[in-house]
């Protein structure tokens, strides 16, 4: 025999390759041995590890010739281009929603499972995917590194900034086939279409008011908290939401750049103009069943209904003056509190004025005519 006694040795006494391999500390199948120093992510294969490191390099050499978006890997660009083809071959059996990538379908299907295994340790909110949790945690960091160069607004994510910039482009490719309203994003169109369905499954447990979207319910519930953290530095009026404060502050500027092309009426905010236009279209309006007068909001209609009664049950406890409506009483009481409501740009005198009867533009018109 050419083999010398002693298992695994050849005639020269050298251990066979198989024997040497057997003595090596074996890595279990699926064990991840490559760790990224930047983010701590683990990888099983060296190739995948090297590909991942391109993410941190910031180099995006592969650009989409259709939309200009760039990618670090050729494979990612190839996957992205499927979006432009319009082909969505992967369909969810539960809800029928279709996707361009199988990974997107798999991620979506977790929403139907109801399992939310990823918890935010700062606010306790749960998520179905780890990636969604990471995105959410950016909110707590307070870091908003992505700035819109058109309006100066900051965002936590580049994707959110890109979506926001569609607003400035004025391009609205998504149309509602029921009312013709257009949107810059498909998601906003879907949210809008819930209005037409008439389904309002989200109900406020305090007042019973129902909403088509959970976000609308959440914003509504701020009213019941009574907390109005956003205050106007010109008149002291407070608001539950910052967007309402910004819209209100436009009234102090006196600038009404948004004009109705049907009647010529001007508005300080585009949202006020849009609301006004509903009077002309007769869509989503509130009509008084006693005089058939039309209003753009339910609140305006509610205030108007008080004009049809002669009763004055709301009494001021300081001067005993009576009013038909609670909002009229509230406006009157500001005379007694002597809050500075508006500053006239004509005479530079702060005037304590009854908010219910006079608005800032009325005040300035009267002052310019020397009626005070």
From TrEMBL:
PROSITE patterns: ZINC_FINGER_C2H2_1, ZINC_FINGER_C2H2_2. It is found in: Nucleus. Residues 7-24 have a biased composition (Basic and acidic residues). InterPro entries: Znf_C2H2_sf, Znf_C2H2_type. SUPFAM superfamilies: beta-beta-alpha zinc fingers (SSF57667). Belongs to the krueppel C2H2-type zinc-finger protein family. This is C2H2-type domain-containing protein. It comes from Astatotilapia calliptera (Eastern happy). The lineage of its organism: Eukaryota, Metazoa, Chordata, Craniata, Vertebrata.
């Amino acid at each position: 025999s050419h083999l010398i006694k002693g298992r695994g040795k050849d005639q020269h006494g050298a251990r066979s390759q198989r024997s040497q391999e057997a003595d090596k500390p074996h890595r279990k199948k699926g064990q991840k041995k490559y760790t990224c120093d930047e983010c701590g992510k683990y990888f099983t294969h060296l190739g995948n590890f090297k590909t991942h490191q391109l993410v941190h390099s910031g180099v995006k050499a592969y650009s989409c010739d259709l939309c200009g978006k760039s990618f670090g890997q050729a494979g990612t660009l190839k996957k992205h281009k499927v979006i432009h083809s319009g082909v969505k071959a992967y369909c969810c059996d539960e809800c029928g929603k279709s996707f361009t990538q199988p990974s997107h379908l798999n991620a979506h299907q977790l929403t139907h499972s109801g399992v939310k295994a990823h918890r935010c340790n700062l606010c306790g909110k749960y998520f179905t995917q780890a990636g969604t949790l990471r995105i959410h945690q950016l909110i707590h960091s307070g870091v908003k590194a992505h700035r819109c160069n058109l309006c100066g607004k900051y965002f936590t994510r580049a994707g959110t900034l890109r979506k926001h910039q569609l607003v400035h482009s004025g391009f609205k490719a998504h149309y509602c086939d029921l009312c013709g309203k257009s949107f810059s994003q498909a998601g906003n169109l879907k949210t809008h279409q819930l209005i037409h369905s008439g389904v309002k499954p989200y109900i406020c447990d305090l007042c019973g008011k129902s909403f088509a979207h959970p976000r609308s319910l959440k914003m509504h519930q701020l009213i019941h908290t009574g907390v109005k953290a956003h205050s106007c530095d010109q008149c002291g009026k407070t608001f539950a939401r910052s967007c309402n404060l910004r819209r209100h502050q436009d009234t102090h500027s006196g600038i009404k750049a948004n004009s109705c092309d049907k009647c010529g009426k001007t508005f300080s905010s585009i949202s006020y103009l849009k609301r006004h236009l509903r009077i002309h279209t007769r869509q989503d309006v509130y009509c008084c069943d006693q005089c058939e007068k039309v209003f753009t909001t339910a609140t305006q209609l509610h205030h108007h209904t008080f004009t049809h009664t002669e009763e004055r049950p709301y009494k001021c406890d300081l001067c005993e003056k009576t009013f038909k409506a609670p909002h009229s009483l509230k406006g009157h009481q500001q005379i007694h509190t002597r809050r500075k409501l508006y500053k006239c740009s004509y005479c530079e005198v702060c005037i304590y004025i009854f908010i219910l009867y006079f608005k800032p533009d009325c005040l300035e018109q009267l002052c310019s005519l020397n009626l005070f």
